[in-house]
Fold this sequence. Notes:
The chain folds into two domains: 40 residues; 140 residues, Lipoxygenase-1 (Sandwich). Helices cover 16% and strands 31% of the residues. It has two helices and nine strands; from the N terminus they run ααβββββββββ. Strands 1, 3, 4, 6, 7 and 8 form a six-stranded antiparallel beta sheet that branches. A three-stranded antiparallel beta sheet has the order 2-5-9, with no helix packed on it. It is globular and about 90 Å long.
Amino acid sequence: MKNQWWDDDNAFSGAGLSIIFRDVLLCAAGGFAVLMVVILAAVNKPGSKKIHQSSPPGNIIIESYWPDSLNDDIDQWVKGPVGVPVGYSNLVGEHYNLLRDDLGKNSKDDPVNYEVTYSRGLPSGMHCVNLHLYSSRSKVLPIVVKVTVKIAKGDPGTATIKGGDQPVLVTDVKLRNQGQEINVFCFFIDKNGDLVAEKTFQSDAIRLRSASDTMPGGT
Ligand SMILES: [Ca+2]
């Protein structure tokens, strides 16, 4: 009796096996292509892009920016509720660390004018921020400096900035001559680590660079 599967269709002959193998490969390739399309669609789906924001190394983040085109050295000075002011000549205090002192001498490896100070923890009481125009090499005056304060709650490495990287305080100030020191603002942090917005103030009487004994006490 004639075997139709063997003789008529050559299903398992050499030619038949080649056809089956080819079909299996085509099916596998097709399945892989469909899988890649699905994966790429998921990756590129609008709104699915994640914002990779590193956790800050401190809790109160005070930043100053001035025009990158200026070769001017501005210093940020910060003082917490207790201890001495923190600035370029005193990098560490009771509550704060100056993490970046910018000399204003920009290069391709460091094209920005920017200083940043971090607190360790969220100490309640009064915090003050001053700016000092140490060197005005460019002679372009006044210099507008943007100063921001952000609050991050949590431990270093896991802390997240309140409001999604939005500052709780931001202002533009003008430095008008070399050697000028100005108080940008003083602000209060409550027992919960939150800004007491209505208690923020500015005072020309506050000097941080030269002395700390002019500071009124905070609670
Ligand atoms: Ca500086």
